[in-house]
Amino acid sequence: MSRTKLRRFGVGVVVLAAVGGLTAPAAVAAEPHAATQAAVDQHRLSRAAIGGGATVRDGETMWSVTSGTRMLGQNLPVGAEHKVRTGSLAKTFTAAMILQLVDEGKLSLDAKVEQYLPGVVQGNGYDGNTISLRQLLNHTSGIYDYVTVALTNPQLQLRQFTLAQVAALGLANPPYFAPGQGWRYSGTNYILLGMIIEAVTKRTYPEELATRIVTPLGLTNTFVPAGTKALPPGHVRGYVGRGLYVDVTQVFEPSLGGSSGGIVTSGADATKFYQSLLGGKIVSPARLAEMLTPHTIPNAPEYGMGIMRIPLPCGGEAWGHDGVWPGYHSMAAASTGGRAAFVTVNNLDPAELVGASASGTPASQLVEVVKTALCDR
After folding, report:
1. H-state helical runs in 238-377
2. Which of the chain's termini has less CB crowding within 10 Å, N or C?
């Protein structure tokens, strides 16, 4: 993305500041969880981020580390309770809700999209009669990713969208490939899944999220913003830049994220959700097994249903998802052994967001920080 386009994104809410606070803290050999602290510090500095943090749950125990600040000009730690726009972490939440509905007999993974959204995925090379819910969940549908459109047209940041309007941005472009004939990460898949949740339950996606996930787990900082670009107190500010920074916390329209990338959460909430999911407390064992079964497309990431496999250097594996939103890059994961981790930094260029969407693969260094946190005992 050119510098001219980047400036256009920030019109009206530009906050510029010097690089202050990006020097590495002195190492403390006896510091608890020194490995995670060092990994977060290094990742923050490599990304030229203002702040970063990690939260880890190990059974009933939770701990966190912080680096830098969550707001320029202030000495504010990035703590476990601080709210972050987490982008595609929403996909794991949405997939879990879909699988709950499968457990309840209200959906079938191999049913076609047309059955639940008649007429929505038709034309321009699409036929909802040939695309299954399973293919939406594991990104083998071939449906074009709306994120590419949403981030290259600043005018789209000026109004709010319904899920159907967001899906239309992707469906206005031809498919990448025929259903089941490839793998391509696409936010449009998860917008359509959000629409299916609403069609089957007759309730809004935010209502179902609250009823199915937030309330049962006792999450206190997880929600879908509605009607405003502002975040409530206790949030991490999001920035773009190196040396000079643009505060983009309230620039990008959150309704463009929706059921694909619109959830706000915190380290404490994200780790509780992923720990509960991998611990079998959200969906049935049969559905969880399907969720953790990657697609069979060769030479593509090991992606199941809204979640990807992460081999651990200390043995075993974890499953999680990264999430990018302008100004933020986060990742959460959990093992079946009861450990969960969430890592975030508050600096992300929109051009990186488009690139991440195209590849579907999180930045390798972020994955390594998550691995370190999960193995740090």
Report:
1. 258-261, 267-278, 285-291, 350-359, 364-375
2. C
C-alpha R_g of the chain:
20
Amino acid 330: pLDDT? 96
For 67: left if phi > 0, alpha if psi spans -120 to 50, otherwise beta; the answer is: beta
Alpha-carbon distance of 227 to 24, in angstroms, equals 39
Residues of the chain with pLDDT under 70: 1-31, 350-362
Tally Cβ neighbours within 10 Å of residue 334: 28
Structure tokens at 271: 């780790």
CA-closest candidate to residue 373, choices 46, 27, 29, 53: 53
Exposure string (b/e) for 246-268, b if CB count within 10 Å is 16 or more?
A: bbbbbbbbbbbbbbbbbbbbbbb
C-beta separation of 170 from 191 below 8 A: yes
Residues 290-310: pLDDT tens digits?
A: 999 999 999 999 999 999 999
- pLDDT tens for 97-131 read 999 999 999 999 999 999 999 999 999 999 999 99
Structure tokens at 123: 């034309």
